[in-house]
Inverse folding.
């Protein structure tokens, strides 16, 4: 995180934004990170809700985090609890749920809580990147 | 040891009928089987009787006259046997033979089919609750496969290509293992397939299945296995028992987490299995009901109320016992005890 110079440049390259991926599966974090890095995003990782809260509360993340992508079925603080925490403490950070279990009721309830997108694994890279781009765009619009 | 109200039964004929009767009557505490006889020393019922430590003989006249028999069950299907019995039976003994014994045999068969049906339907009803776990465990490797494959379509670096191809292969194998485990579990238990089963192996297999049915997050696992603990029974049914008890234990700790302890040991020629949780516990007034059919404390649609009933049926069939010890908010321990089948290292383990 030390090499992070500003909200827009990482290691000399243009940065599209800073994304936090919360998932207990290292493989999922790896592949989501790979997919987003290709599109120029800086990606942070957390293995559960508790770690995610730690990450967002550390350093400049509370200001510079653009999107959180969050799994639901996780140990410690699970996805639903993390979503509730993020919504009440960081209402300006857009949340995308990425889950292995499609559940219409759960999706509705998340969207009602202000989650911007509900994606079901396996999700194509293009779909994931456009969901992230859309989330950031919406946030920029809301700021105006 | 013997009490006077015991019904003392002699079984004549150790074919399929005799064997089925033996299996059934042996489970009833108020019945004492004084012996089983057949002219053919290789009859399947005689083999079973030896396993159950029921006296075996080829000397029918001795069996019916000299052991204080109160009921003679004739399943030889031999019309001459009936005539012989009526002429030679002790005056205090009743005879069940001919069409009456056939009817009884049919009822036994019917009951065992119903039991198998009940077991299967409870198992299938339970699989509904696996959906979330299965989806999670299948879609995660699929996400990895999709993401890596998308990357491979553009990747130029051969080292990365090889590495990611290997990851894809592993993920694909992982996904297929899930289907294999579940289809094995969901199949109908094969009837009368009593073999030597390694309890430790079955516990580990049951853990894999139970993970689909319940959330193991925030649960600490402790295993204390004594090597070589084996029991005789139907492996599919034993698996069902263990999945049920582990799933219940995890459900009891769902809200607050806790410790799941699995323990096996040999003691005084008996095989013991203990499954303990540190969960919500069972109210003392509920404990006498938990093995009754259709008793459940779960929300409507969440449990069939047949889980522990089936567990007990199977355990009894394996000539085992099940005991429960529970304290509210402290946890629950189920202890299973079976006759230890054979010392470690002998026979084939399933």
């Amino acid at each position: 995180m030390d090499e992070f110079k500003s909200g827009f440049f990482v290691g000399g390259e243009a940065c599209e934004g800073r994304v936090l991926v919360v998932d207990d599966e290292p493989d999922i974090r790896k592949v989501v990170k790979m997919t987003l890095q290709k599109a120029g995003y800086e990606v942070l990782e957390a293995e559960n809700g508790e770690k995610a809260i730690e990450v967002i509360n550390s350093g400049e993340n509370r200001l510079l985090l653009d999107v959180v992508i969050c799994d639901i079925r996780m140990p410690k603080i699970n996805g639903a609890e993390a979503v509730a925490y993020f919504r009440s403490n960081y209402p300006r950070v857009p949340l995308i749920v990425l889950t292995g279990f499609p559940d219409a009721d759960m999706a509705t309830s998340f969207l009602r809580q202000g989650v911007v997108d509900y994606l079901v694994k396996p999700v194509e890279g293009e779909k994931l990147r456009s969901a992230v781009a859309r989330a950031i765009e919406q946030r920029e619009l809301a700021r105006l | 040891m013997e009490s006077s109200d015991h019904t003392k039964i002699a079984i004549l004929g150790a074919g399929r009928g005799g064997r089925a009767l033996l299996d059934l009557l042996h489970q009833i505490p108020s019945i004492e089987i004084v012996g089983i006889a057949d002219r053919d020393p290789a009859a399947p019922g005689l083999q079973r009787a030896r396993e159950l430590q029921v006296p075996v003989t080829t000397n029918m006249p001795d069996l019916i006259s000299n052991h204080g028999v109160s009921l003679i069950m004739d399943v030889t299907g031999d019309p001459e046997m009936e005539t012989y019995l009526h002429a030679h039976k002790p005056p205090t003994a009743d005879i069940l033979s001919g069409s009456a014994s056939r009817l009884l045999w049919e009822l036994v068969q019917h009951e065992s089919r119903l039991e198998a049906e009940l077991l299967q339907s409870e198992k299938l009803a339970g699989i509904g609750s696996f959906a979330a776990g299965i989806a999670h465990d299948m879609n995660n490797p699929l996400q990895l496969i999709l993401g890596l494959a998308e990357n491979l379509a553009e990747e130029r670096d051969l080292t990365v290509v090889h590495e990611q191809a290997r990851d894809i292969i592993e993920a694909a194998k992982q996904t297929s293992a899930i289907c294999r485990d579940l289809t094995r579990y969901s199949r109908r238990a094969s009837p009368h397939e009593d073999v030597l089963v390694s309890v430790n192996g079955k516990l580990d297999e049951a853990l894999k299945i139970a993970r689909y049915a319940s959330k193991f997050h925030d649960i600490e696992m402790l295993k204390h296995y004594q090597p070589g603990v084996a029991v005789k029974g139907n492996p599919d049914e034993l698996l069902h028992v263990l999945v049920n008890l582990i799933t219940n234990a995890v459900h009891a700790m769902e809200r607050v987490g806790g410790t799941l302890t699995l323990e096996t040991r040999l003691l005084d020629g008996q095989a013991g299995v203990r499954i303990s949780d540190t969960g919500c516990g069972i109210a003392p007034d509920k404990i006498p009901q938990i093995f009754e059919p259709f008793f459940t404390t779960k929300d409507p649609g969440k449990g069939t109320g047949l889980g522990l009933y089936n567990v007990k049926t199977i355990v009894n069939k394996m000539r085992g016992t099940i005991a429960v010890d529970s304290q509210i908010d402290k946890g629950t321990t189920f202890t299973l005890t079976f006759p230890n089948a054979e010392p470690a290292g002998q026979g084939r383990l399933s």
In short: The beta strands of chain A are 9-10, 13-14, 17-22, 41-46, 67-70, 95-99, 117-120. Chain A touches chain B through 24 residues (CB under 8 Å).
